[in-house]
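Hey team,

Filing this mostly as a record. A colleague (T.K.) asked me to run one chain through the structure pipeline before their review meeting, and I want the input and output archived in the tracker in case anyone asks later how it was produced. No errors, nothing strange. Just documentation.

Input sequence:
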Amino acid sequence: MSRFLDKFRINPKGSSPDACQQDASSVLPSIQQGWGFLDMTLDGIVLLDQKGCILDANDRALEFLHSALTAVSGFDIWDVVSQEIAEQNQESTQQALDTSAQYSFIAQQNFENNWLEYTFRKHPQGYVLNLREAGSTQRLQRLLEDSKRYNQLIFEANPNAMWVFDLTTLRIFAVNQAAVKFYGIPRKVFMTLGMDALFPEGEGVELLSSLRPSTDGKETQSEMRLCRQKKMDGKQVLVELAWSHVKWDGHQAVLVTLADLSDRHFADNTLKSANTELTQALLAQQDELKNVRNDLLAFTQAVSSDLQDSLHVAHGFAARLAEKYSLVLDDQGRHYVRRIQASISQLARLVDDLRTLAQLPLRNSAVEAVDLVPICQSLIAGLRKRDPTRNVTIEMTESLVLVGHKNLLTTALSCLLENAWKFTSKKPEAWIKIGVQPGKAVGELVLVVADNGVGFDPVYSGNLFTAFQRLHSSADFPGNGLGLAIIKRVAQIHGGTVWAESADKIGASFFMALPQAAANAA
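Output structure:
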């Protein structure tokens, strides 16, 4: 057996890890300096000694390994991963590390529909193993999360007191540690304040007037100015204050930076430079988010072509197998073929729904008054054609006029009717009602789709509109849990809201409230 196997397969499965652990006390201190920071990454990181035995691992790695640290510490890494992964990759990894300092491979997790990338790197005291999800969507999500985390670290670590408030509501929704210390206000309390609470009475109005666009529509440039700020103990201090218009987590917001004039070691140029660097970092983060969004769109386009083509081919071969070789297969074999066909169909529907969810913002048509009655009639006709044996009573008002994007409203209505049709399938006398009613806000209308299906437990109503959340078994009611998430996203694009009601798990009503005045102005 190769030298790598001699190093890495010290313990047979189930054996004592003592042989691996004998040098851990001398190796760990030098490797683990700064180990706490590793839990901030989305990667799993495992420390191995020269024999390939596990010394330590961060929380993300333990999630990938489906184990606690106490259960795997001291064991050979190849005894912790699945036997199939070990058999397929152990020897090739050894051969690669004999001649290079790094080697990577990708393997599918058993019984899980996901792939992991394993990267081994040599270390003076042994090896470092990085584990990360290898799917395209996960890579894009990791870029987005890393970008957000980088932005937050810059903001939080800045030595200048900084806080951010919403330009519309004036509510403070972000504050760094320097500001918490300067004002003496706990962070939780800080996040409940409006921006005027930090100024002596009336002085916040002057700042707000400076933030309004000029007569030619241009935003005012950031500048330094002297003003007073009020601390938690009521003490007022003179500060130099600067502000910048930013877009922060979807908010049109204002970033406020201040320097206490009682501590002059923060010179003017240093403060301006720090503010400029932060603004540039925020702009860079916005550019990165834009690039991630473009990458996501490219991914969805690939899904809609390459992946669907592959699924179509796989489904065709499965159908051919069932047709031509059904007499050769036994009952178990035919059952497997049916399961393959069902899984392919389910995956195809999931791909369609994911593409729909990702591309919703691009489907905006012109805002107009849309009568949903003919759209409902067409969608219901399609449902009846698909399931001609069902007898479902449809109640619908004569006029269902909403102002909005026709394409998006059609998508949402399709998901609502599909949902009602599915969950009334076990009712011998099913009915579905569609209507529009006034909302709570002025100028708001609410689209209502109700049914007498199985309903849901109101305790879990908060999970209904979350992607991939299901309150019923897929064996009873097939689906992928994206329909209601699509409905919520359509409402959000219109500036509206969604909710659902069910009484004692008998029937359900789904509501989508749309601000008609806002839609007219869009």
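Quick notes for T.K.: The mean pLDDT is 78. The first strand starts at residue 44 and ends at 49.
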